[in-house]
Amino acid sequence: MSNLTAKIAENIALVHERIKAAVMRSGRQGEEIKLVAVTKYVGAEEIRLLIQAGCLDLGESRPQQLWQKAEELSDLPIRWHLVGHLQRNKVNRTLPFVSMIHSVDSLRLIKAIDEAAAKVSRRMMILLEVNTSGEPAKNGFQPDEVDLLLSELATFQHVEIRGLMCMASLEGGLDVARRDFAALRNLRDRLKVNCPPEIHLDELSMGMSGDYEVAIEEGATIVRVGTALFEGAVG
Ligand SMILES: *Cc1c(COP(=O)(O)O)cnc(C)c1O
Fold it and tell me: Domain with 18 in it: what CATH number?
């Protein structure tokens, strides 16, 4: 086994262990947390090692890189997640490759995804990105605008809304990240009260290498981890 293979396998094992510990700490025994391995820093060779180690859910933040890697690795049973901003003019090209889009941040984008999915007779799984940190540079719906949108979103036949996603504040450390994650969970809990039956808000995609354990403690069901998987292996 090469050093690279061993290091990546070791990193994955460690992340899984920490996920498990966070699940236990938060009294969520028995719940499965989905690990999306974010591959934006690495190439096909490292990605193949992830797959060998059992990581089949992979994330990319740039559509073009996702297309390129998905084509290069089309022999593998990867489930691709788009976790970064998607422009409407890239929807058609992106749709065939992805199993879930985490970063849906406007009604116009949802309409574009619905139309594109209809053309290929699919229902696309999406998450609504919410700007819980309030940072102006961040994408996402404002927390108080989602409620009014839900009944309109329920009318789309070719998107399947599965939950919410957020990015923690860049500044402020773990306490601020925890506040942002708790805000997403609280928003989800409030929205569930009047949620149309077509819409499911079970998934909370939150937490990255620096804060995924805190995110799990605050209710994350999906964590998006890049750097921690490749530490000591690349770069
Ligand atoms: C890069 C990225 C991640 C992973 O970040 P790491 O800190 O490398 O774990 C998660 N989510 C999004 C949206 C990203 O762009």
Answer: 3.20.20.10
Q: What's the pLDDT tens digit per position in 101-150?
A: 999 999 999 999 999 999 999 999 999 999 999 998 889 999 999 999 99
Task: Name the domain count of the chain.
Answer: 1
Cα gap 65→80, rounded to integer Å: 11
Helix axis angle for 63-72 and 44-52, nearest 10°, is 70
Domain that holds residue 64: 3-230
- Convert 24-38 to b/e letters by CB count within 10 Å (16 or more is b): eebebeeeebbbbbb
Q: Which residue has the tokens 């990105």?
A: 129
Is any ligand 1 atom within 6 A of the Cβ of residue 159? no
Q: For residue 44, tell me if it sits in a domain.
A: yes
Q: How many residues make up the chain in this entry?
A: 235
Ligand 1 centroid distance, CA of 41 (Å)? 10
